[in-house]
Amino acid sequence: MTATTSPAAAPETPSPLTDVTRDEASLRRFLHGLPGVDQVGVEQRAAGLATRSIKKEAKRWAIDTAVSMVDLTTLEGADTRGKVRGLAAKAMRPDPERQDCPRVAAVCVYPDLVETAVEALAGGGVRVASVATGFPAGRTSREVKLADTRMAVEAGADEVDMVIDRGAFLEGRYLEVFDEIRAVKAACGSAHLKVILETGELATYDNVRRASWLALLAGGDFIKTSTGKVSPAATLPVTHVMLQAVHDWHERTGELRGVKPAGGIRTTKDAIKYLVAVHEVAGEQWLTPELFRFGASSLLNDLLLQRRTQVDGHYSGPDYVTVD
């Protein structure tokens, strides 16, 4: 039922859109020429889709799909190699008593812990993701941002999650943001690039749409809502706007790019709402870890508890899963 096509890895801007990035004026004209977002409409649609019920026979599939889309994340100053190893073990076998439970998509850590994650996940089929570019604020020089990225990739990261310069974006310095994303993409080599917009700081849905298209134009393989360090983080209406952007990008270029909501998604009920949005806004082919992820830590525990409920026919308490 789902596609397995990977997001386009080529950094070159698709030829139909090359002209729009040739200078600041052209890029501004393109971004501000995008259709405005109907705030009431997108919020009503998000609320309406969130009420969709999932039949019992489909709920198990939805839970397993959500588990397989989780980027199991630890991004704290107190992170240790031991914590990362524990997270890696859980990523490969989320429920040790249920061998049919799928693995998560990735483990996401800071660059200095990538090597530990790579060693712990070796041969396990789980990717290693690393934040970079001065996460979470991104308030440092481009040279440092690129060094941060190269450090993660050289340590073995399969994916890099970068933060955009929100200050530059909000001041309308779009070409500067575009160039920086392109430079980070080049530094990633074969690693996939997720571009964090930090939508809670962008203020309007129109800005979210513009930032989404800017990241796609610059070669981002995924667009990601948030760092999880700013409130609000992921919301359904914002994710709708981003899903529409990747859908429209595909219609225009033929390329498939992904979306990753991150921060504040904690329950199975929440995750299913997002899966419904993916299906209805972007399309069924986005219902794969190659094109949709959850940036989460506590979400996995609830998914595992609800999965046991579906399998066993009764609720299992939190003592039956490991606590992150």
From TrEMBL:
Q: Where is this region: Disordered?
A: 1-20
Protein name, as recorded = Deoxyribose-phosphate aldolase
Q: Does this UniProt record's set of keywords contain Transport?
A: no
Give the record's family classification.
Belongs to the DeoC/FbaB aldolase family. DeoC type 2 subfamily.
Task: Give me the reactions it catalyses.
Answer: 2-deoxy-D-ribose 5-phosphate = D-glyceraldehyde 3-phosphate + acetaldehyde
Q: What is the lineage of its organism?
A: Bacteria, Bacillati, Actinomycetota, Actinomycetes, Pseudonocardiales
Coiled coil (residue ranges) = none
State the EC number(s): 4.1.2.4
Keyword Membrane in record: no
Task: Look up the record and name the pathway of this protein.
Answer: Carbohydrate degradation; 2-deoxy-D-ribose 1-phosphate degradation; D-glyceraldehyde 3-phosphate and acetaldehyde from 2-deoxy-alpha-D-ribose 1-phosphate: step 2/2
List, as start-end ranges, the regions of compositional bias called Low complexity.
1-16
Per the UniProt entry, what species is this protein from, by scientific name?
Amycolatopsis albidoflavus
Q: Which InterPro entries match?
A: Aldolase_TIM (IPR013785), DeoC (IPR011343), DeoC/FbaB/LacD_aldolase (IPR002915)
Pfam families attached here? DeoC (PF01791)
